[in-house]
Every structure is written in structure tokens, then in C-alpha cells.
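Hi R.,

As promised on Friday, here is the backbone we talked about, encoded as C-alpha cells. Could you run it through your design pipeline when you get a chance and send me back a sequence?
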């Protein structure tokens, strides 16, 4: 135990300071537990990833760039989930299948 002050008034001051410090630590722990609980709820409530992705062009008038499998590592940020039929229709309409995940093979698309 560290050396403590020998008189009661300074011991009371030290007790008050330690109580305040302990309350701050407890508040920080509670806030961290709330953030962790919110993060966990977010992970549990996250919708499942789509099976197929359509990577959109650079602007509204650009045609879609690629069709990807839903778990493709190369899908861009401008991708949105589509159904199997929409993915097949896009490939048949001339949208390129991603050369990395090969959704055309997975979809069973034959030229």
C-alpha cells in the first residue's frame, strides 16, 4: 500500500478523489458495454448478402458495368443486389460477367 497521508482531512480528500475516479471508470465501462451491445445487435440484424450483384456505371446514364456473384471480392461500391433472373437478364442484355467470380458459369448461362 502506498504511503497515505497521516491526517483525517487529507485522507477524506483522497477518498473523495478515488470515488470520483472510480465513478468515471465505471461510466466509461458502461458506455463501452452499450457500444459493444449495439454493435452486436447490428451484426445480428444485418440482412444476408445478396446472391447476385449488378455493378452500376459511373453515372445515371451509363450502362451497368458487371454482373457479380454476391460474395465477389471485386464488386465495386456502386453495386446493388439483384435476383437470379435479373442477373441472367443483364448478362443476356450484354452486361459483362465479372472475370473473377464468373457469375455466368454459376448461373448456368450459355451463349
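Update: got your reply. Pasting your designed sequence below so it's all in one thread:
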Amino acid at each position: 500500500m502506498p504511503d497515505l497521508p497521516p491526517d483525517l482531512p487529507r485522507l477524506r480528500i483522497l477518498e473523495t478523489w478515488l470515488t470520483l475516479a472510480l465513478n468515471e471508470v465505471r461510466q466509461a465501462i458502461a458506455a463501452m458495454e452499450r457500444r459493444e451491445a449495439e454493435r452486436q445487435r447490428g451484426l445480428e440484424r444485418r440482412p444476408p448478402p445478396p446472391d447476385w450483384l449488378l455493378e452500376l456505371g459511373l453515372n445515371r446514364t451509363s450502362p451497368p458495368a458487371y454482373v457479380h456473384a454476391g460474395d465477389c471480392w471485386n464488386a465495386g461500391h456502386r453495386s446493388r443486389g439483384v435476383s437470379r433472373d435479373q442477373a441472367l437478364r443483364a448478362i443476356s442484355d450484354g452486361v459483362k460477367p465479372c472475370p473473377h467470380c464468373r457469375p455466368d458459369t454459376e448461373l448456368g448461362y450459355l451463349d
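One thing I noticed while checking it: Residues 8-45 form the longest helix (38 residues).

Thanks again,
M.
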